[in-house]
Amino acid sequence: MLRGLMYFCRMKFVWILVCLAIGAIACKSSKKSPEGQAIPMPVDEPVKPVFFPVTSFLEGQLTEIREKGLNPIRVMKQTDGREDSTWLKMEELPFELKEFFQPRIDSAGMSNWFSEKSFMDESLGFITLTYERKSELPDSIDLKEWTVYIDPETDKVNRIYIVRQSGDSTRQLTWQAGKQCHIVHILSPEGAKPVVQKDVYYHWDF
User: For strand 126-133 and strand 114-121, is the pairing parallel, antiparallel, or unpaired?
Assistant: First the structure.
């Protein structure tokens, strides 16, 4: 009697193992397509690089000037070397600088068209993030390049340099954080000497 019971228990255990094996095979089969081919796994899209948000930073600088109640002064350099200084209302400054705020410089708008290089510039003492064209740009983007300079001791932006180019016209912005900015327009006709059409400083830290 005891021997028969032990035999029954062994057969039941073997049957359980067989059922588990069949279940595992069925589970694997359910992951295949009706044709017996494995369902392809989804392919992750390439991750876009993260650029320093230049436009957002400049907008923050304008907000800081406004909150401090500062009125900037505009200094225009004439071709004969003379300077013409004019006080501006804070509301006028964004209008004076608007050409460098569109299109927006950030990851979403520029990562398809520009590449980033970062290195420590020992001669300047800054970490530099340099952005250069990597492909043909659409007509709506006339940016040529821009560079962000970061103080490694404070991790704060010291200045930003932006170059825009359309045909024979080049426009440059140098923004020194918390202090001033400088705009230069240069016309470079083919076969002629480049001419500075605009050379103006905006100061708000005295």
Answer: antiparallel
